[in-house]
Amino acid sequence: MKKTITAGMMLLVSLFSPLALAEFDEGIEYVMIDADAPMDQQASPEVVEFFWYGCPHCYKFEPHLEGWLKNKPDDVQFVRLPATFNKLAEYHARVFFALDLMGEADRLMEPVFNEIHNKKNRLDNDDKVKAFLAANGFDERKIESFSKAMSSFAVQTRVRQAQSLFRKYGLRGVPSIVVSGRYRSGEVKNYNELVQVTDHMIDLVRKDKSALK
User: Fold this and answer.
1) What average pLDDT values come out for the chain (213 residues) when binned by 10 residues?
2) What is the domain partition of the chain in residue ranges?
3) Global pTM?
4) Which of 87, 118, 174, 201 could form a disulfide with 183 if both were Cys (CB 3.0 to 4.6 A apart)?
5) Cβ contacts of residue 73 below 8 Å, gap of 6+?
6) In terms of DSSP H, where are the helices of the chain?
7) Measured distance CA(168)–CA(164) in Å, rounded
8) Which CATH class is domain 23-212?
């Protein structure tokens, strides 16, 4: 009898877990950006995370995001875009895009967060960033390439594009998730819920595309 009761209790827990009961409302946990925006039926769902290296919430969300990335559907595309709402964030955006051009942004995501939030090094000027890069496998030649990328037209263009999208999507803070330019995350209770809302928005995009067929 004891085993039967325990099994029953486990079943109830699974049925009434937060994940099983997760229901999200438009205008609260997620927001439709533009109901009239055209959709490409052939395009894969695209998930964009807007973040800032200096944001403590982005730092704490990163492990949850990495867990989601390990299990995301193969057809879902993922992109990171830095927010640029102040001078330091704009500087960090240039750092990110320069690293991205060199194929180093993903590898150094966790080390950069760790440097800023655990070691309390804000990485707010070129000397600090170069020293950080040297400690993370960059030789002099690679650091020189990074410096050139920081001031390149390509990086400046990508910063402006990120700024434009941040405004276009009506974002006010980070981390924020945008799916296929159609839905964005809203008010969530915790980082796990933000991951769940991301999956919910992906499902909505799939349904929107199916409705067009």
Assistant:
1) 37 38 87 83 92 98 97 96 96 98 98 98 98 98 98 98 96 96 97 98 92 71
2) 23-212
3) 0.87
4) 201
5) 45, 202
6) 2-15, 56-71, 87-101, 105-117, 126-135, 140-150, 153-168, 191-212
7) 6
8) alpha beta
